[in-house]
Amino acid sequence: MSLLLLTLLILLKTCFHGKLLVHAVDYDFSYMKSVYNAIDLPLVEEYDYIVIGGGTAGCPLAATLSEKYSILVLERGNTPKAHPNVLSLSGFLKNFIEEDNGDTPAQRFTSEDGVDNIRGRVLGGSSMVNGGFFSEADDDFFAKSGVEWDMNEVQKAYKWVKNKIVSYSNLSIWQSVVKQALLEVGIGPDNKVTTKYKIGTKQSGSIFDNMGRRHGAVELLNKGNLKNLRIAIHAYVNRIIFSTKSSSMSPFYLSIFFIILITESYIANV
After folding, report:
1. Domain tally for the chain?
2. How large is the C-alpha radius of gyration of the chain?
3. Which pLDDT belongs to residue 245?
4. Cα 180 to the chain's mean position, in Å?
């Protein structure tokens, strides 16, 4: 285990010491009304939009689109309910040391740089297995991204997410000491409590609340129109076939998705 990971664990554990007993009853699982095992889907069905991956980006995207459109979310993993360790801070380390059997919520992989890491394999994605730190991106990142962002909409999106799943807790004694040490060695200024990108030292937000409960991206599904949402778990996308309009030959997102589950293929059309 790296020194960085060990330090993170100490900081997290200290922050919520004595508040780690969390039960499933403490969570809002309303989104489960829209969750299906993909093998139970109709063999052929049509939707306005199909979101591949019910992760950190897929969940809020699906929730937003569902306000006006019919949405199918395809998630290869299971639900957080099936993996209770992802729901609390006390289960954080267990996700790292659990043997990867192909169904665990944390999938081990090695990056192209040769760095061992994990990524989420559960509804909610990596937001259900990471350290829970929440911070906004640098404005310079958006400026150099090559995409013309409406920054007013970006700020609205940040505000929406923060209001739904982000918490701000008082620093523990240990965390206060670490923060003071950083300031004393010149990592300043002290930016106090903020989720904004700032040079120096700051206390940011967390998707763990003050009882040690994790509020991952999956909870954003509760803010969608569940009547317009269908969330398929254990769904692996095998192929995407693009059709074209005969008049302009431009891509037409009829997009047929073949979902391979055990031995059967399923088709969903947009």
Report:
1. 1
2. 21
3. 58
4. 31
Q: State whether residue 33 is helix, strand or coil.
A: helix
228 is written with which tokens?
């317009």
For position 116, which CATH number holds? 3.50.50.60
Question: What's the pTM value of the predicted model, to 2 decimals?
Answer: 0.81
8 CB-contact burial (10 Å; exposed 0-12 / middle 13-18 / buried 19+): middle
Quote the domain boundaries for residue 32: 3-132+207-269
pLDDT > 70? residue 261:
no
In a domain, residue 80? The reply is: yes
Token pair in block for residue 268: 């969903």
> Do 60 and 217 meet the contact criterion of CB atoms below 8 Å apart?
yes
Phi, psi of 104 (to 5 degrees): -70, 155
Per the domain annotation, does 118 fall within a domain? Answer: yes
Helix and strand element counts for the chain (H, E): 6, 14
Domain membership of residue 18 (yes or no) is: yes
Residue 262 lies in a domain: yes
Confidence bin at 191 (pLDDT 50/70/90)? very high
Q: What is the pLDDT of residues 43-58, one digit of tens each?
A: 778 888 999 999 999 9
CA–CA distance, 107 with 84 (Å, rounded to integer): 16
For 172, the token pair is: 């523990």
Cβ neighbors of 6 (< 8 A, separation 6 or more) are none
